[in-house]
Write a structure and sequence with these properties.
The protein is mainly β and 263 residues long. The chain has one domain (48-256): Porin (Beta Barrel). Helices cover 9% and strands 59% of the residues. It contains one helix and 13 strands; from the N terminus they run H-E-E-E-E-E-E-E-E-E-E-E-E-E. It has an eight-stranded antiparallel beta barrel. The protein is rod-shaped, with a radius of gyration of 38 Å. The two termini are 68 Å apart.
Amino acid sequence: MRKFIATAAGLSALLALPMAATAADLPAAVPPPAAPVYVPPPMFTWTGFYLGGNLGGAWANNNWTLTDPFPFTLAFSGTNNARFIGGGQVGFNYQMGGFVWGVEADFDWGGNNSGNGVTAIVPAGPLAGTSLQVISNNTWITTVAARFGFAADRVLFYGKAGGGWVGNNGFTVNTPGFSITGSNNNSQGGWLVGAGIEWAFAYNWTLKFEYDYLGLSSQTITVPVGSPILPGDTFTTGTHSISMAKIGVNYLFNWGNNVVARY
């Protein structure tokens, strides 16, 4: 019996040797792949500098008063037809919670205003009963304003308050038989208010719609003494304003949009 047990144990040991060698030749177990790291999209913020362009229309509300040496006065008032404007803007936003504040400056060129003016009838003097048209050609508009509003994620509702300037390069007085044109290469300043809505349709691109009202200071223009009509007369603006409606696109160099949180 003892010999049988010893013989069986020896045979078992001999059989175990090749099996152990075979197991040693097998490759090591490959661990399961690690779970992927979740990387959420960048967190949007309005904070940062921005640069963009705009297109739109502008129309002026003019109130002119003509003073004649005879003497008589003549009032002109009316709203000019809309004119095309286009230009660009640059600014900075800073966001704290839902509140966004900043500053913005823009510059726009205006289309030609030739033939677009206000008209009145001369009451006395050599031109009594004659229609008189006054055209003032504004060529550019620039504004600088504080911007403030509330952001609902990627939609910003904002208001503006500041100042603006309008450049003028021509002043024309027309009658049925005469026309005088003078150079008026100066600018008028005034106060600005506005409001708009801006939508971030991509992480760094925004689209905005905006309305601005620019109230301008008074201006006086004198007709040269040698003019064939109205020599020495003065034209003075009273209430004078420009309204603008614009659509614009901005590229936002925002800081927070480049920060990626990892979990």
